[in-house]
Amino acid sequence: MLYGLYQSAQGAATNQRELEVTANNMANAGTTGFKRELALAGHYRPHADNRLSFGQGGAPPSLTDLPGTNPFDLGSALARMTGGNGLAATAIDLAQGPLNETGGDLDVALAGPGFFQIQSDDGPVLTRDGRFTRGPDGTLVTAEGGRPVLGEGGGALNVPANAARIGIAPDGTLSASFDDGTNYPLGKLSLVEPTDPRSLTKQGDGLLTAAETRPVDPRETNVRQGFVEGSGVDSVRETMSMIAASRGFETNVNLVKLQDDTLGRLLAAARP
C-alpha cells in the first residue's frame, strides 16, 4: 500500500469541493445581498495511538513517543499513519457588501450586521436583499418571490395604495405621507442577527436560516432607504482562488497517477 496515494486522493477531493464553492460564488457576483461562502480545509488529527502532545502545551516528544519508529516495524508505522487535509466545513462571509443607490422608496439596505426577516412557507427566514415592493393586497413583499416582509412582533407590514411617499428611518421605522400633508406610522422592520453566526444555513434564493436570532444593535446597524446591497463577491479574488484550487487539484491527481504507476511497477517486479 502506498499511503501517499490516499492522501493525494483526499487532497484532490478537497480541491474539487473548493472549486465548487468558488464557482457558486462567482455565479452570484451580481446577486443582490449575496454572501460568499468559504471552503475551510482542516488537517486530520493523528491516530489515537500517537501520544504526541507537542504543540498543545506539552513538551517536545522523544523518538520513543512516535509510533512505528522501529525501522523493522513498517507495518505498524503504516497502520498508525493518519493526517492529510480535508474539507472541514463551509462558512458564510458576512462582510458588508457595497451599497448601490436606486432611489426607490421601498429599496432598503443594511449598513452593518443583521438581516431582514421575511415569511416563507416554512416560517421566518433571513435575507440581505432589500428590494421590496407593494403586493396586490397592500402587503410589503420581496421583489423576488413575493414573500411578506415581517415587522417587529412577527406580523406583516402593509403599505397604503394612496400614499404619496413611504419613508423609512435608519432604525427601520416605516411611515406613509399623503397629499393632504398627513403622515402615519406603518410599523417597523424586523431586523435580527444570528446568536451564533456559525448556525447560518443557506436555503437558496438569497435566503438563510439560523438556529437562534436576536434584535440587531441599533448603534451598529442602520437602514439606508433608496439603496440595495450588492453582492459580497470580489470576482478577482474568486478567480485567484479558483486558479489556486485548480492547480492543487491537478497536482494531486498527477501524484495519484505517479503513485499508482509506482505501485504497479513494484508489483510487477515482485512477481516470480
UniProtKB/TrEMBL annotation:
Q: Where is the Flagellar hook protein FlgE/F/G-like D1 domain?
A: 109-176
Q: A GO CC term?
A: bacterial-type flagellum basal body
Q: What is its main location?
A: other
**Does the keyword field hold ATP-binding?**
no
Keyword Cytoplasm among UniProt keywords: no
User: Record's InterPro entries?
Assistant: Flag_bb_rod_N (IPR001444), Flagellar_FlgE/F/G (IPR020013), Flg_bb/hook_C_dom (IPR010930), FlgE/F/G-like (IPR037925), LlgE_F_G-like_D1 (IPR053967)
- The Flagellar basal-body/hook protein C-terminal domain sits at 224-267
Q: What residue stretches are annotated with the Flagellar basal body rod protein N-terminal domain?
A: 6-35
Q: Which GO terms describe its biological process?
A: bacterial-type flagellum-dependent swarming motility
The entry's localization annotation reads: Bacterial flagellum basal body
Keyword terms: Bacterial flagellum, Cell projection, Cilium, Flagellum
| Similarity comment text for this entry | Belongs to the flagella basal body rod proteins family.
Could you tell me which NCBIfam families the record lists for this protein?
FlgEFG_subfam (TIGR03506)
Protein name listed in UniProt = Flagellar basal-body rod protein FlgG
Record lineage = Bacteria, Pseudomonadati, Planctomycetota, Planctomycetia, Planctomycetales
